[in-house]
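Lab notebook, page 48
Experiment: co-folding of the full assembly
Goal: obtain a model of how the components sit together before planning crosslinking
Operator: M.T.
Materials (sequences as entered):
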Amino acid sequence: MNRVLLKNIDTPNSTDIETYIKSGGYNALKKAYGMTPREVTDEVKRANLQGRGGAWYPAGKKWEVSLASERFPKYLIANADEGEPGTFKDRPFLEQDPHMLIEGMAISAYAFGAEHGYIYVRGEYPDAYNVLTNAIKQAEDKNLLGKNILGKGINFDLKVYRGAGSYVCGEASALIESLEGKRGHYRTRPPYMAVEGAFARPTVVNNVETLVNVPHIIERGAQWFSSIGNPKCPGPKIFSLSGHVERPGLYELPTGVTLREIIYEHGGGIKGGRELKAVIPGGLATSLLTKDNIDITMDVDALWKAGTSIGSGAVMVLDEDACIVHVAQRAARFFAHESCGKCTPCREATKRIHEMLTRIAEGSGAESDLDKIVELCRLMHNTSLCGLGESGGNLVASSINLFRDEYLAHIRQKACPSGACASLALA
Amino acid sequence: MPELIIDGRPVSVDADTTVLQAARKLGIYIPTLCYDERLKNSGACRMCIVEAEGSSRMIASCCTPVRDGWNLKTASPKVHEARKTLVELLLASHADCGGVCADCARTGRCELQTWAYAYDLCEPAGKPDCASCESQACKTVCQKHSIVKKGKKVSIDYDKCDNCRQCAMVCRYGVLKWDGEKMVMRGMPASKKKVNRFEGERHEYEPVSSPFIVRDNNKCIMCGKCVRICQEIEGRSILTFTERGFESTVSTAFERPLEEVACSFCGHCVSVCPTGALVEKNIAEQAGDFRDDELEKTETVCPYCGVGCVLQIQHKDGNVYRVTANVGRGSNNGSLCVKGRFGYEFVNSPDRLTKPLIRVNGKRAAKGQFREASWSEVIKLIARKFKAARKADPDSFAALSSARCSNEENYMLQKFTRLVMGTNNIDHCARLCHASTVTGLVKAFGSGAMTGSMSDFDNADTFFVIGSNTTESHPVIGLRIRKTVREGRAKLIVADPRKIEMAEMADVWLRQRPGTDVALLNGLMNVIISEQHEKNRKFIDERTENYGELYAAVKDFTPEKAAGITGVPAEEIRKAAKLIVNGKAVCFIYSMGITQHTTGVDNVLSVANIAMLTGNIGRPGTGVYPLRGQNNVQGACDVGALPDVYPGYQRVADESTRRKFEKVWGGPLPAKPGLTVNEIIDACGHGDITTLMIMGENPVLSDPDSNHVKKALKKLDFLVVQDIFLTETGQLADVILPALSWAEKDGTFTNTERRVQLGRAALAPIGKARTDWEIIALIAGAMGSDKFNFNTARNIFREMATLTPQYVGINYGRLEETCGIQWPCPTKDHPGTPTLHTEKFTRGRGKFHAVQYRPPAEKTDREYPFVLTTGRILQHYHTGTMTRRVEGLNHLVPEAFVEINPKDAARLKVSTGDFLKVASRRGEIKIKAKVTERVAKGEVFIPFHFVEASANMLTAANLDPVAKIPEFKVSAVSMSKA
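Observation: model returned without errors.
Model output:
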């Protein structure tokens, strides 16, 4: 498949607006401005573009709700708070191809009537802030942003806002709270952000990868987009491949590609020719798959049926030498660290799960801990306030279900079969 | 309308109803820890989760709207298991108390404790005691009527029980338990620590103490109610979340002490805390001595300002332990200020008067010498002296009544003065605060009271606040206005010489020079008339009269002319006028800054003018709002503690009225109107009044020109003072009578929105003290009158209501049922009147008055170059008799101060904390400087609460010619470094 989204990445001076325009950039914007906002929204709806941040919610539906609102001004926010371990698919746009994002935002904003836009970029991408700020300046100079864009009477200004290092701010409402200068806490819904979001006005938050698809849909049509990959969640998808593979990196592939193809064809197989043990298919908040599952197709339904999720498309590969307890403990540490502390189950359970896993990794765990951990993971899933807590126990719970023997080795024999847990002996 | 099923029962509710509300509608109990109906949805604690059929994720009922077709279970095994684990997790992080709660200040009221017991995660402290359990919640929540209470015993009827376990959820003693198969009643097992399955790291915070509040974050469950109420209701955001995840907790900015971060100590945070994390300091200090639910509770009305907050006194063995306010009770709806919530220590002060006192040496001195006496002795003495005065000349007697006493007591004293003593020389401190309001608003509207209600502050879209430091003087009204403004629902215009708190959030702040309000208002009206064109023509034509005169008076009063007098830039006047014109519902709020002037009546008339001119009267969200200063200043006026009117503002000079009262009271009444407060003091000085009775007032500190007052009182033949403390005025008395405080007596109080509310005795009488009305009845009896034979306040009210047209439909029974009734209430089935002048004004048409600007009486000169204004601060009240006996309030503001502008301070070479000598043409005081931009250059401000540096040593008794109110707000003073 030819790269569409990542087509400019290797071009010299890719961040420069002239380079982007030379490769046909901003044509889609001009085309979109010749359509009505309703037509743009409908086109994206027909294409069935779904949210690439991990929730796979139809972008057109969000826009439609905001489009219907009579409250102004409206806001469009690009969620560039790419905080989940293993996910780095938005970074190339933020650092190497900013204009594709800007063009996507200008079109999307037009589709539902937003006059103000923000790019909420994670604080740990320092280059991105500079690249985006320069690119916005360039676009403004060419009257592709700002007032009366291209003489069409359309206004859209864009600002870059840097996050301060909090995973939960990748969640739309916490992101908005943070953008408003408040603590990054989840807001209960309703009201939905599309009705009452940033500064109490209709707000659409779309992931960067979602937005960069928009110019291509406008240029090539919904039909083109919806015929790519799995028809239920169509389009190109950028997979962030990492872990024990020969060629980790970003791979733009149609949805529905098999996991085997990603790992063995594109990733060059397991590093050093070792055996595959498990895969984290969609980021740290998704349940593990074992090597028996790698013929699964990477689409929303297939992964759902397998008890996990496609998430953001962050595929992390674990080889036979990886210690599952160690991996789970590190994942638990991440969620305990990133829990915002607002709701009881997430705040308390992430802490206790991490404590128990640490005890197991250090050889002082008890078998009863395993049931307690699974119970807490279930509690988090069933009762947490936001997606962080809801999904934060997935990986840990699945690791116990799938690799119970490895846990028992740590508990009963006080031994780590892979040697990763430093305080324990090799089995 | 969505239809759904909750616990097998169908219900149909509006689409925006939450699951929790729908369940409560069905009487189904769902537990919550972070929910408060006053606050925005949070969804933090997750205790209110319910199970939706077909979904593994559970629903947080407090913040989830109902959905059509849902089948929900609120108490399924899955729900119980999740809730139990949540509680166990909370307990794992909770302070390690060994599993028992007995030593915690909140034991018995802690919601975490309730759940810990309900799910058998902790051992209960104390004996399970169904007999004294006041909640009886087990019975209430049981849908199957399977909880049977016979005498002192509670038992379970197993034939009816469906094992829903709701009773276990609400049993605060942990008596009702789920044993895995059925509900059981259990006794008290040996206390042993339960093992928490998630035992691990616990928090180790140091408890943080402040004058009124102790915060122990080890007991915090992060429900966030304190943070949210401080932000959403109080609008201060003093408390905030800090850190995240397990380390997240509640703190202040940079963990500074509350005293340093602009906390107003309203105590909202304490009142909503479900655990022992935020506790009143006095209760924290006595942790373990008693269970919180052993406290008795009495609902009554706040003893401080005119807002009249409904509150609950919690007490035990004659001591007040806590004051709190409940949601849904009174206009304050759960809110209180620092004085209301924490200012009750005076009740149990050792300084309280408990026995009558008689002066021993003849001479009156600032520190009198007294001996204790029996009631019979003092009453005999008083009767003899009063009889002699009456015989000599009835008008040689006068009485000062009190805006701090109940309606019944004020009624009794004015009846006594008129009927027994034969004079109309009765007045009270309303003279010093809102005499000009009563006079002015009667002239303009026909009624001297607030035209609307506090609820209008939620509906207004524009506020015009002039001469009112609302957030300090009427804090609970202040927070209501601020909330509406903060939420962007209303514009705020503040006119005040000082940069008060509300000025800082105002859309327009007009800083007029003290005493130039008429000029400012005329300037505003000049712009309004040209801006609004025909907008309110209909209202002016149909509802008012005399518009021509007003027009003539203000047509040349341009903003430029007003600017010259007031010092407010003309542009700002125009801006404010436009906001008023654009407002669809404007509230005009004022207080002492308008009334306490020699032009007080003119000022009030001008406010009435501007309200009528813009048609902002008689509709929700509009009106003229004089904020009354004391808890019963409205009522004391209503029931006739004034020299010219009987109860209900019926004129004593009117013969038919007098005949009516003579008939009912059974004796002749004097026709000549009596003297006002300051005239009474003057008459004392001149020897025209020889005998004075003062009930609950302290004129030596509260009246202007203290030296003059003291001198006058010393000239009296006989002075009786009844009070709860030996005040500065009491020191000059011949007889001092110990009165009961507000916490010890029944009686009604009428607040600033004309709401008659019932105060109830919480405590038994202290010592030999008596209620003020009993004392009056004793004296009257000793003087041979049988018209004062009442045995309860309720009976007095009955007589009073028949004679007070506004109160006719009100009685104790109704007041007990409702939470107050707003007068006028003409019949027993009348609901009360939230808004006056809706169809027509009380006097028929509203009357415009042409008002010309007159400068204040006292002028600055070379010798006295500064303008002094006086007023209140948040933490203290009036002459300090109550608040200065509260340790925490004294800690917050220990002493008097004078606010002085930095420029003036630099010239005088003083900085904050240095002593200044402040002198006027009448006296001088030594006082600490507080250098602040709050006051303008050339102006200074002194609160009048402090005896050691009494502002009224400096003020003058320059009176408004009609209302006789003194000009407290303008005195010329000199300042020098002491």
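Interpretation: The two ends of chain B are 74 Å apart (CA to CA).
Next step: discuss with group before ordering constructs.
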